[in-house]
């Protein structure tokens, strides 16, 4: 969906196909495995401990519309931005430490691609969930499909606790 240093987009094809109806991606980042091929159709739960990354997914999943995405301005080379969603498109690990970034040619190009990809693929993630917290507190992976109600309640309790971390 968006550029993210360390994302698993290139190697997602080497991971096994999902065996269950729920995918839990515990180091969410750009969620490359959950977005690979038809994996997005599953019940997807992302877990991300970085609040800035969580905020991006939280907005994309629960609020953003295609119109909102299309209205996001293009970035001009040389201008500065302190938006974390822009900063991650700088394509370097160092960018994560920046509070403000000067838009380079690479960043502007990556952002242009992401704007299009986000708008085209937004519908895929609207049934997903995102939890802000450590992966160690992720919901139990086994049997979630069978005990749907119990799993959902667990998740809701867990989510309200984790979102305060
Ligand atoms: C390499 S990146 C993302 C990889 C991701 N699967 C992808 O394809 O984009 C790793 C992410 O995991 C998050 N992370 C690191 N430690 C974590 C932890 N203990 N629990 C949850 N998320 C964590 C980081 O904030 C970062 O966003």
Observed structural traits:
165 residues; alpha/beta; two-stranded antiparallel sheet; 6 helices; globular; binds S-adenosylmethionine
Give a written overview of the molecule:
The chain is α/β, with parallel strands linked by helices and 165 residues long. It has a domain at 12-72 and 122-162. 35% of the residues lie in helices and 11% in strands. The protein contains six helices and five strands. The strands form two sheets. A three-stranded parallel beta sheet has the order 1-2-5, with helices on both faces. Strand 1 (22-25), helix 1 and strand 2 (43-48) form a beta-alpha-beta unit. The radius of gyration is 16 Å and the shape is globular. Mean pLDDT is 88; it is low at 143-149, 151-155 and 158-165. S-adenosylmethionine binds at residues 4, 6-8, 25-27, 29-32, 47-50, 53, 134-135. S-adenosylmethionine is lined by residues 4, 6-8, 25-27, 29-32, 47-50, 53, 134-135.
TL;DR of this structure?
The chain is an alpha/beta fold and 165 residues long. 35% of the residues lie in helices and 11% in strands.
Q: Which class do the helix and strand fractions yield? A: alpha/beta
Beta-strand content estimate: 5-15%
Helix content: 25-40%
Tally the beta strands. Answer: 5
**How many whole angstroms does the radius of gyration measure?**
16 Å
SSE inventory with pairings:
Layout: E1 22-25, H1 32-35, E2 43-48, H2 51-62, H3 66-71, E3 80-81, H4 84-87, E4 101-102, H5 105-121, E5 129-132, H6 148-162
Parallel strand pairs: 1-2, 2-5
Antiparallel strand pairs: 3-4
